[in-house]
Amino acid sequence: MKAEKVWRLGSMGDMQILPGSRHRPPMKKPMWIIVLVLFVCVFLICAYIYPPQSSSACYVFSSRGCKGFVDWLPPMPAREYTDEEIASRVVIKDILNSPAVVSKNSKIAFMFLSPGSLPFEKLWDKFFQGHEGKFSVYVHASKTKPVHVSRYFVNRDIRSDQVIWGKISMVDAERRLLGNALQDPDNQQFVLLSDSCVPLYHFDYIYNYLMHTNISFVDCFKDPGPHGNGRYSDRMLPEVEVKDFRKGAQWFAMKRQHAIIVMADNLYYSKFRSYCQPGLEGRNCIADEHYLPTFFQMVDPGGIANWSLTHVDWSERKWHPKSYRALDVTYELLKNITSIDVSVHVTSDEKREVQSWPCLWNGIQKPCYLFARKFTPETLDNLLHLFSNYSAP
């Protein structure tokens, strides 16, 4: 209306100056064109913000899996990488693109991270029997020199150092184990285990499970809460951004190429060594829960399964998972663990959002776990008695 009023005043002025024009029919303001243009603009903006999900609309608007007019726009400017990032990415990309080393005698490296002696050596001895040449054993004992009762563990101790829970020394121990295991070219899969870990299946099943897949089983999920992204420090910038910060259990099964890039990495590791510590800047950042998940999220997110092959029970919602006692260890307990085929994570924020996805092995949903942990030493006899029964898939 305001625009119309201004136009009319202007026309009256014209009439005073040019009286002869008073017989000219007045021009009508094309309001319908303005309304139509505004409507189209609003429609396009809404369609851009809330793109249609049906495939039939893909040719008009951008949607997942299709291209549209948004693709005509210039790409968002990427930040400039530092020299160190460029060098690191070149090395990692080259390793990942190189063909896998073919071994005539592929082995699994079982890497035990322990404060001292391993309480379940007798169980592992039973697990390894008859499969010589298909596995290697490495023991990192951080406090006391272990006493071994199984021939498979004798002389398998590596040079170890002190490990403090929550600090980067835990990641250092993992890398130390990987470094030693990588010296054997036949080792193609690398499994990190604790002193409280036990196998859930017989050796052949676990061997075939790992050798016939091309991904690594590294736990990784996004937690927006205080025990997830709340631990992130801006001092990790520019190399580590909060959008890539992830969380996960430290217990992994990793293929050889991934083990090599972990050993080759110094850039991202140094960021976690400096800025992911308990109590730093008021945050309790636990390096072994964040370094590997974040690292793989940045360099090869499609190459990991996003769950760990080692089961642990967090149902008590404490700082440490539930420990199994002798009375807890029954055939039913072990069968229940081996029947789980969905990976579940719960965020640490107020929403307590449950994130779950099926455990897919080469596209087939299978049980998630090959190992389980937090068994106390008193459970050994029960486990030895039950092993031949529960370990059959």
UniProtKB/TrEMBL annotation:
One of its GO terms (cellular component) is membrane. Pfam families: Branch. It is a single-pass type II membrane protein. The keyword Transport does not apply. The chain crosses the membrane at residues 31-50. One of its GO terms (molecular function) is glycosyltransferase activity. Its main location: membrane. It is found in: Membrane. Keywords: Glycoprotein, Glycosyltransferase, Membrane, Transferase, Transmembrane, Transmembrane helix. PANTHER family: CORE-2/I-BRANCHING BETA-1,6-N-ACETYLGLUCOSAMINYLTRANSFERASE FAMILY PROTEIN-RELATED, OS06G0661900 PROTEIN. This is Core-2/I-branching beta-1,6-N-acetylglucosaminyltransferase family protein. It comes from Psophocarpus tetragonolobus. The lineage of its organism: Eukaryota, Viridiplantae, Streptophyta, Embryophyta, Tracheophyta.
